[in-house]
Design a protein that fits this description.
The complex is a heterotetramer of chains A (291), B (256), C (241) and D (315). Helices cover 36% and strands 26% of the residues of chain C. Chain C is α/β, with parallel strands linked by helices. The chains are: A mainly alpha (291), B alpha/beta (256), C alpha/beta (241), D mainly alpha (315).
């Protein structure tokens, strides 16, 4: 049944979903879009963030969003270390593209299986007072378990956009894949710039993971569902434009929400991949591309 | 460690000069330079002349560390402190106050003009002076001020060359290296650009080394210069007149 | 009376708004040696990309041996007898020198090869340019001058009627330049027409029977080496105004 | 045609396999070997595109599942005999491969890899929603009663997969040593140079992707009869996609025998690990081995062996 209430609720759900997608995609937007590193394991780091939130929430009852924020620095160092391995093994020897891709593919499995070994394949949940509460505004229902992640994700996006546009390092990150040599001529060390960038990218996964487990129960292989979706968002968003990524995420969220509302939730996952394939085939530079 | 010594020099730099001795360099097993020696004294404008593919750009790249010489020495003298540049990374050499306007401009095409300029001030010593330097380059190139928000990649060739020069100035350099500023520019723009570089050099008391194939434009700003043919110094002109009155020049260029 | 082998008429190529080549015409006779020179960014490489089919021109026509080949794919042109060497050598890095030559022999020159094993023919070509002792070496590990030789040997293995040589000598020493020149002379002696793009003036002047000068996408001069050198427009293009 | 060592070995393997079915009783062996051989066919197929041509396919599971579900649908709709099912699965897989081949026109390297991944996941979503073949819930497939000249159906499937393996290896070996194979190697080394040397790059890439698609899809076609219960989780299993990449990478991608070696070694290790330890650990082993080989020995076991021999000869 197509009703007005259904429609605006679908839009609202899509906006919130899209906001959350931005949190997952923003890290990949930095790695894939800015650094040309195809971190296919990014969603798995997000799941890692979910399990960190799960473990700490269960043991100490701390709010999952707070856990996510607190763990960002730890994930940051994880990302810096990861770049160092990637740099030494692939970038330095000039075989980053395909071997690097396979490397992250392998890394994805290792992480996923380690989580399966540690936590099993059962779905895990977190608890917080607001999960289960819903805000009612007229005909609009805004479940807090969606609204809070969407708000947190939007704040994180704003923070990253500010960092990228206002700091020297942020601008250097934007520049490093455009012309690495020219960046050296500006006096910046591209390896350090990339290390910091991947650190930031993985740090966003810590919070994104915590947000994910607020929205839905999580098991280790859930991350794979996000691969196509976030690649679609990043490519659609114009490869590395953070604000473009945010709007692409919102777009995908709304479209998925519509599909789920009017056709059934099982078709929703194909939206991202379908849009990705179309984008790659028709307009590889994305919809919100700067260039 | 290096940055520590630089900090000591800050604010009381008196003189800076480059000495290049017997440099040999190339790409992989291609040897482009066969024992080149040149000097650039403080406050001079020195031009490297010669047609394409003879090694002018390679020499500039050796100075900034983009190409590592296989033999020879490149030393920078600043205020009596001598630094051997061979083996240093480009970002560290830039940190010493040497800026380069690369061939083909090499802007960050997907960043705005202003973002490009700000990145020029990345090195620590330049950051405190970013506001005044930005004012200065906007004054020098008013066109860039108008277009500060535009993506660098969407600018015309002449405007891009302005951005490249302005961006190099943002690092507050003592020595400015300019590599083939005329490439891809209409003749009228070449002449304007080279005049501008001369003007800037005088205003900011810089030392300039420029590689340029456009002989007649390059000698307009030259105090003296070298002609490089096939990786060797074919002629050293002690003055600009020396160069322009040399009837061998055409032979060097066209191999007649 | 020799035949026209290549006829390029009013060729225009744009990249976005940038006009890389603006209505350039050129022709080449069978067995002729043509030099194509001009300052950086004058459109030389774009021109040979349009001749070899790596790029398709926007306007104008390319005719080869009297047939219109405008719009034909690069591999078809190679099969018809247009070979090119690359400025930056592009060897098939996983293969030996000999195997590198087998690719054009089996693809570009298919149907035009002599009877007998492909490897023997590859070996003959290597012998002709004095390169046979490197036949079994892996191509990725060659020195720069040897890579250039391989580029030319591989182009030769395509059994071309026209060879386009893109800066085969950049960055080589004087004696190495002479080696490459000698190979190109030998090649031409077998009846192959050659278009040479080169920055090393000494080499182009010596090699070319006729020279065409491009500047900013336009043909500014054409003639014998001597005529071209004394052309004031050429002087302006190189020395500036 | 003279029989060379390769063909003698192939025939010997097929005869041995047949004798095995007549003498071994424990069905476990057939189950295990079937799984290893299925991995082998997938690895060999992957390598035709990934190793010979240089285009990485992350969507192996998608191609496999196309075979699986073609089989399920045809069996349910018409009850067709297995050979017909295999043929149709091959055609559909080939068409999908052909489509992937046209993708290479626009998408190079990383983008191609991501596009294949996306394709696989779109197929998965379609299957999840295709009620006729069981949708997300899955469906049971009955093994046919008669099993030809074999004692039971698993022996037949084992023999079928053995024949497929030999065929896949023969095709891969032919492709690598023929004129086509040389052209593919040229494309992998430098596509632009290849085109300029007269190599019809698009046509050869289409041959390569189509062969890959046919083989992967055919490898999946007997799967429903092997497991008797198919759902998207098993048809699109993670392990299938990883193995298709890991086996060639570990064995060595440059030669036709690389993926064979990789598949046999990794397959045996996996089957042993599954029985003796756990299936999760099995996945972990694949992941760790894959990452180790990519970082330490990108040429795989075959490459390590060649290096070792070169060093020995140099002494």
């Amino acid at each position: 049944m197509f009703t007005f209430d259904l429609l605006i609720n679908a839009v609202a759900a899509g906006l919130m979903l899209g906001g959350f997608y931005a949190a997952v995609a923003i890290g990949l937007s930095i790695t894939f879009g800015q650094l040309d590193i195809v971190n296919i394991a990014h969603p798995t780091f997000v799941i890692l963030g979910s399990f960190v939130a799960f473990v700490i929430n269960e043991s100490f009852g701390i709010d999952p969003v707070l856990i996510g924020v607190v763990f960002m620095p730890i994930f940051y160092f994880l990302g810096m270390g990861l770049y160092q391995i990637y740099y030494v093994s692939f970038e330095k020897t000039g075989q980053e593209s395909l071997s690097g891709l396979a490397f992250f593919f392998g890394l994805m499995f290792i992480l996923e299986v380690l989580m399966i070994l540690a936590f099993g394949v059962d779905y895990r949940l977190v608890s917080a007072a607001y999960i289960g509460e819903t805000l009612h505004i007229g005909p609009l229902d805004l479940p807090l378990r969606m609204l809070i992640p969407a708000v947190a994700a939007t704040l994180m996006t704003i923070a990253v956009v500010l960092y990228m546009s206002k700091t020297f390092m942020g601008k250097a990150i934007m520049a490093v894949s455009q012309d690495r040599l020219a960046l050296q001529l500006m006096g910046a060390d591209p390896i350090r710039v990339k290390r910091i960038a991947l650190g930031i990218a993985i740090a966003t996964a810590a919070l994104a993971g915590a947000l994910l487990i607020i929205i839905q129960p999580v098991e280790p292989s859930v991350g794979r569902l996000y691969i196509g979706r976030i690649f679609a968002i990043v490519v659609l968003g114009g490869m590395g434009s953070i604000s473009g990524t945010f709007f692409a995420a919102i777009l995908i969220g709304v479209v998925e929400s519509f599909i789920a509302t009017f056709y059934g939730p099982s078709w929703a996952p194909a939206v991202g991949f379908g849009i990705l394939l179309l984008t790659l085939a028709i307009r590889p530079q994305g919809l919100f591309g700067r260039a | 460690m290096r940055s520590f010594t630089i900090r000591k020099w800050k604010g009381r730099i008196l003189a800076s000069s480059l000495t290049i001795t017997d440099v040999e360099a190339g790409y992989g097993s291609v040897r482009v330079l066969h024992g080149v020696s040149i000097t650039v004294e403080d406050g001079e404008s020195v031009v490297l002349l010669g047609s394409n593919g003879n090694g002018k750009s390679t020499l500039i790249k050796c100075i900034t560390g983009i190409v590592r010489p296989s033999a020879g020495a490149i030393t920078l003298d600043v205020d009596g402190v001598t630094t051997d540049l061979v083996g240093m990374a480009p970002q560290d050499i830039v940190g010493l106050g040497i800026a380069m306007v690369p061939e083909g401009r090499r802007l960050f095409p997907a960043l705005s003009v202003e973002e490009n300029l700000v990145l020029g001030a990345f090195r620590k010593e330049a950051r405190p002076m970013i506001a005044e330097n930005l004012d200065f380059v906007f004054e020098t190139f008013p066109r860039l001020k108008e277009r500060r928000g535009q993506l660098a990649g969407s600018m015309s060739g002449g405007e891009q060359q302005m951005v490249a020069v302005a961006r190099a100035l943002m690092s507050n350099p003592k020595i400015l290296l300019v590599d083939e500023p005329s490439v891809g520019l209409a003749p009228i723009l070449v002449s304007q650009m080279i005049a501008k570089i001369k003007e800037l050099k005088d205003q900011r008391a810089m030392t300039v080394l420029m590689a340029e194939q456009n002989f007649n434009q390059a000698i307009k700003i030259a105090d003296r210069g070298y002609v490089i043919v096939h990786g060797e110094i074919a002629y050293e002109g002690a003055t600009a007149e020396d160069l322009s009155n040399n009837d061998m020049i055409k032979e060097y260029y066209l191999g007649a | 009376m020799s035949e026209r082998i290549l006829e390029v008429t009013g060729l225009t190529k744009r990249f976005g708004g940038f006009v890389a080549l603006d209505k350039v015409s050129l022709h080449l006779d069978e067995g002729e040696r043509l030099g194509l020179i001009g300052p950086n960014g004058s459109g030389k490489t774009t021109m040979i990309n349009c001749i070899s089919g790596a790029l398709i021109n926007d306007e104008g026509r390319v005719q080869f041996k009297g047939a219109d080949i405008t719009g034909l794919k690069a591999h078809k042109r190679a099969q018809l007898g247009i070979a090119r060497s690359f400025q930056v050598p592009k060897p098939f890095g996983s293969m030996t020198v000999l195997e590198n030559l087998c690719i054009p022999l089996e693809f570009a020159a298919r149907g035009r090869t002599d009877p007998g094993a492909v490897e023997d023919q590859a070996m003959e070509i290597l012998k002709m340019i004095g390169f046979e002792d490197r036949a079994r070496e892996n191509s990725a590990g060659l020195t720069q001058v040897d890579m250039r030789k391989l580029e030319l040997a591989r182009a030769l293995a395509a059994k071309p009627a026209l060879l386009v040589s893109d800066e085969a000598m950049a960055g080589l020493s004087a004696s190495e330049v002479d080696d490459i020149l000698e190979i190109l002379f030998k090649l031409n002696a077998t009846g192959v027409a050659v278009i040479m793009i080169e920055h090393i003036m000494r080499a182009v002047m010596r090699y070319s029977q006729r020279i065409i000068v491009l500047d900013a996408g336009q043909k500014i001069a054409e003639g014998t080496p001597d005529e071209v050198i004394h052309d004031p427009q050429v002087e302006r293009a190189y020395l500036g105004e | 045609m003279k029989l060379d060592k390769f063909w003698i070995a192939c025939i010997a393997i097929l005869i041995l396999g047949f004798v095995f079915t007549k003498n071994a009783d424990n069905e476990f062996y057939f189950f295990t070997t079937y799984v290893i051989l299925q991995g082998l066919v997938m690895a060999v197929a992957w390598n035709i595109l990934g190793g010979f041509t240089g285009y990485v396919n992350f969507g192996a599971a998608g191609f496999f599942a196309v075979g699986v579900y073609t089989s399920v649908a045809l069996n349910k709709a018409f009850g067709l005999p297995l050979p017909v099912i295999l043929a149709v699965a091959g055609i559909i897989g080939g068409l999908l491969g052909l489509g992937a081949g046209y993708l290479t026109l626009r998408l190079k390297g990383v983008y191609f890899a991501i596009a294949t991944l996306a394709t696989a996941l779109v197929i998965e979503t379609i299957v999840n929603n295709w009620k006729y073949v069981g949708g997300a819930a899955g469906t049971y497939v009955l093994q046919p009663k008669q099993s030809f000249i074999f004692d039971n159906y698993i022996e037949l499937l084992f023999m079928l997969m053995l024949v497929l393996s030999v065929a896949a290896v023969a095709i891969s070996r032919y492709l690598s040593s023929s004129r086509v194979g040389k052209g593919l190697a040229a494309i992998r080394d430098d596509e632009v140079a290849a085109e300029c040397m007269g190599v019809p790059t698009l046509r050869l890439k289409l041959i390569s992707t189509t062969a890959m698609g046919v083989l992967m899809s055919i490898a999946g076609a007997p799967f429903p009869f092997f497991v008797t219960f198919v759902d998207p989780v098993s048809a699109f299993a993670l392990l299938i996609a990883v193995n298709a990449i890991a086996m060639p990478m570990i064995g060595g991608t440059a030669y036709w025998y690389g993926p064979v070696i990789g598949a046999l070694i990794l397959g045996v290790v996996q089957e042993t690990a599954t029985v003796t330890i756990s299936s999760e650990l099995n996945l972990l082993i694949v992941g760790v081995l894959l990452v180790l080989f990519i970082t330490m020995a990108p040429q795989g076991i075959v490459g390590v062996y060649h290096d070792w021999r070169k060093k020995r000869d140099a002494k």
